[in-house]
From TrEMBL:
Gene3D superfamilies: Glucose Permease (Domain IIA). It comes from Trujillonella endophytica. This is Murein DD-endopeptidase MepM and murein hydrolase activator NlpD, contain LysM domain. GO terms for molecular function: metalloendopeptidase activity. InterPro entries: Cell_wall_metabolism_enzyme, Dup_hybrid_motif, M23ase_b-sheet_dom. Keywords: Hydrolase, Membrane, Transmembrane, Transmembrane helix. Residues 8-30 have a biased composition (Low complexity). The chain crosses the membrane at residues 40-58.
């Protein structure tokens, strides 16, 4: 007859104790084991299971839609995808389309910059004076008409030596250099065909063929030729070099410039 084993002892005589003679893990151990599973491994297991189900569900052939659904379900299970959000494919365009868009934007910016520059130039052109007094701040000393038994065909504007002399209006320099009676002189042709004449200067600062705007400096005032003191002799020839010489005071007044 077999002697009954002592309480607390195993069948082999070893003392019974925590974990002795038993291969089942404790509840804490089971929980720790579950906690150590990696999301990637779990995702793989879920996906594999879904793929097998998809295979077996359709006569052994894989179902792409079912497999995709299984992947999405696995991702939702792991919290990778929010099941309340709709999964949409990534939007894209080709590189050629992107380059075309870049060129379109660059062309638009260039056109806008050109338009702005043109607007600024137009505003500046509209704002600048089209006619000026040939010597700013000059003293009017002699007018158009008879003088000392002869006819004076221009006006005299006195100022200190080497005061800047200005083009009365836009035009092209016709002549520049020595001139009888004037010492030195400059002739400018204007758009309407009139020619303005500047005499007695000390130094000429422009050359034949130069285009000048109204107000550009063309010479420095002087006392050369038949002169009684530093001044500018200014004439207007109507319609060209050989045209009728008219009163410069009236010619300037018609263009908004007052003399004296």
């Amino acid at each position: 007859m077999r002697t009954p084993s002592r309480t607390g002892a195993s069948a082999h005589g070893a003392p019974a104790g925590p974990g002795a003679g038993s291969h089942r893990a404790s509840p804490a151990g089971r929980r720790a084991g579950r906690g150590n599973r990696r999301p990637g491994a779990l995702l793989g297991a879920l996906v594999a299971g879904g793929a097998v189900a998809a295979w077996l569900g359709v006569g052994g052939a894989p179902d792409a839609a079912a497999e995709s659904t299984s992947v999405l379900a696995a991702q939702q299970e792991l919290g990778i995808v929010d099941e309340t959000q709709e999964v949409m494919p990534m939007a894209s365009i080709t590189e050629a389309e992107a380059h075309a868009r870049l060129q379109e934007v660059a062309a638009t910016r260039a056109a806008r910059a050109e338009a702005e520059a043109a607007a600024e130039a137009a505003a500046a052109e509209a704002a600048r004076p089209k006619t000026v007094l040939p010597v700013a701040g000059a003293r009017f000393t002699s007018g158009y008409g008879g003088r000392w038994g002869t006819f004076h065909y221009g006006i005299d504007l006195a100022a200190p030596m080497r005061t800047p002399e200005l083009a009365a209006a836009d035009g092209v320099v016709l002549r520049a250099g020595s001139a009888s009676g004037f010492g030195l002189a400059v002739y400018i042709l204007h758009e309407n065909g009139d020619v303005t004449v500047y005499g007695h200067m000390d130094e000429i600062l422009v050359e034949v063929g130069d285009y000048v705007d109204a107000g550009d400096t063309i010479a420095l005032l002087g006392n050369r030729g038949q002169s009684t003191g530093p001044h500018l002799h200014f004439e207007v020839h109507e319609g060209g070099m050989d045209g009728r010489r008219v009163d410069p005071v009236d010619w300037l007044a018609e263009r908004g410039v007052r003399v004296g």
